[in-house]
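Q: Sequence in, structure out?
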Amino acid sequence: MSKRESYSDKEIVTRLKSGGRGFEEIADYLFREYLGYIPTLKNKLFLSVPDLQDAYSDALVRLITQIRSGKFKGESKLSSYFYSIFYNAAVDVSRKNTSYKNIETEELFEVSAKERDLFKMIETNNDISHLMSYMSEIGENCKRILLDWGYYGYSMEEIATRSRLSNAESARSMKYKCLKKLKEIISNSK
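A: Exactly. Output:
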């Protein structure tokens, strides 16, 4: 997989919307590209590096979600747009550290009832390290399928190919089995 030094805003938007390998490469690129904003905000907001890293991750997820949903219109540079999202996420962390009045919410795409239940369970387990340990308990195949589907945005056909399954329907079936397995692991850990 060859890594380019830079991408235009238009290329980034196109690849994020396309999903699959292009999405995966651009998500990695964006993660590295804007890391320089962390020290800038550390000096402005006096937050700890771990808090800023959390805000940074949240901001990247928000940026990707807004691009994929069409909310980013390209009226400003993508880097400026990201900086404002990151700044607001860092301010939210700062407020959260000083008060419990703000409760963070996330916008979810339309999902099935089973998937909503899983998201609710994950939401109640705020610690991402717990989620990662749960993901490691479901096995590498399930972990790859769920990440390819839920994070990287691969289509069911692409997931079938990547996981050496016979077709998209097999991938869809495996996704539901893996979601069920993850839900059971999270339920049993309470």
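The longest helix spans residues 49-69.
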